[in-house]
Specification:
Elements lengths: L1 H22 L6 H21 L10 H8 L1 H11 L6 H19 L4 H12 L7 H14 L5 H29 L4
Length: 180
Amino acid sequence: MKSWEIEKSGSVIDHLAKIVDVLKNDSSQDDIKDHLAYALNDATKIWAYFYDALSEWKPGDPERIMDRGSEGIEELAVFYGALKETALSKEIRESREALSKIREYIQGPRSPNRTLIHDVLSPLDHKKPWIDKVESLTMTVSMGEKEWSDYIEEIPPLLDEWEDQICVKESELKERMHRP
């Protein structure tokens, strides 16, 4: 029965957070927001309770969802032990792993490392301009437009830019995951 209760209480929080996502910019909906805040207060306590994490519940938990919507739920799920990591922490971890592999691969020969770099980049979010720049430069080698020697001289600044973006994301994550 406990898994059903966890599912249901998590579902309530999820649906309420989605409403918050829609309403959070509409100041004419103050009453709805107040009711959502009260519902989230109880729902987060229930959710924490079912994960045996009531001692982890904080009065600011409902506000976290009110401020951040679905991202706030992810953060609470980590605090309560329902998730190992947030999407942002996963993105940071995967980016660090990819960056490390690419830095290793550019030390070696063009073949097979060019293909390995493509393999590392393929599952990543190419909507991020710093990842797109690395992919675009790597494609120039694949298409024969650029020599490997030129590539390994041009890629480090792009990798450094990517690393800088990871550091920004890590600071953002640290701020998000702070609990007074």
